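In the previous chapter we treated chains in isolation. Here, by contrast, the input contains two separate entities that must be folded as one system, with a combined length of 340 residues.
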Amino acid sequence: MSIIQVALTVAVILIGIYMYRRLRSTLLDVILIFLFMGAGVFLVLFPDFSHKIAHAVGVGRGADLIFYLGFLFLFFLVLKLYARLRRMEQTFTEIVRKKSMEEAEDRLPQDH
Amino acid sequence: MINTSSIFAVIPCYNEAGVIRQTVEEVMASGYSVIVVDDCSADETAKQVIGLPVFYIKHKINLGQGAALQTGIDAALKKGADVIVSFDADGQHDIDDIAGMLKKLETEKLDIVFGSRFLPGSKTNISSMRKLLLKLGRLMNYFFTGILLSDAHNGLRVMNRHAASVIRLRENRMAHATEFLKEVKRNRLRYAEFPVHIRYTGYSIKKGQSPLNSVRIFFDILLNKIFD
């Protein structure tokens, strides 16, 4: 086992443990975390496996395939986060608006 | 003819202590009701309007001009406005243009009238850089909303109660100008443009949008298109 394999395996397991401690709310979360963690460790320890899949879909190296997929996933994540940010902004805008309205000073002449 | 006190001018402002009082007094002198939406100014904007017979709302957090306009529109609707005018605080607009826009709104049975710097009869001392950006902006608005106006970002608009109640601005910052067009399209509102007079002053240029900010507006519009 090379140094990078040790480092990556430890990193994946640590991230897995961290996720588990934060998200162990439902059984599905726990299963998913361990599934991803297991897949990560497996791919690190047996890189030939990702090579085979890469070749099968027409990508030269396993690492490249994972890079492409990882990039897509991160891009998707950024979009999701941005959408959530927009929703949050709209929500707090409504709250600020409501509060400001309640405390508005109505000094308009009362002739209409 | 509409009673002038049921015509509400919504004036969003952010750190406009130097000009807000004069702008508000000018609008009031024409008999319109005034709603000042102070977007959490850090200067003495609030002090400047103390004692003026206006509806004064202050945002607790700075949200942006689009958000301030929507707050003002909500307030005007609540106060029973028949017509709502959006009016910039910085003194760029000519109060006399409102009368012409109102007349157009009524006689042509429109829902909303947009002010324009670039129609026959408009008067403006705009810089060529700004002019170029607005020309690009109008094409971009057309691309994103399907509505081609002669001006892209004019703060002076006159709308009837119907338009004000169906238009919902969710872009808190400057992309709301494009959102107006999107809402016009979505709600099939009847619209037109009207030539207005915009006076750029040293103050209004300093306070207004920098040309660079148009990049940010572009991205806000793009993201609005993607996420809504």
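The interface with chain A takes residues 3, 5-6, 33-34, 52-61, 63, 67, 70-71, 74-75, 78-80, 170, 172, 223, 226-227 of chain B (CB under 8 Å). Chain B has a mean pLDDT of 94. Compare these points with the single-chain example from earlier in the chapter.
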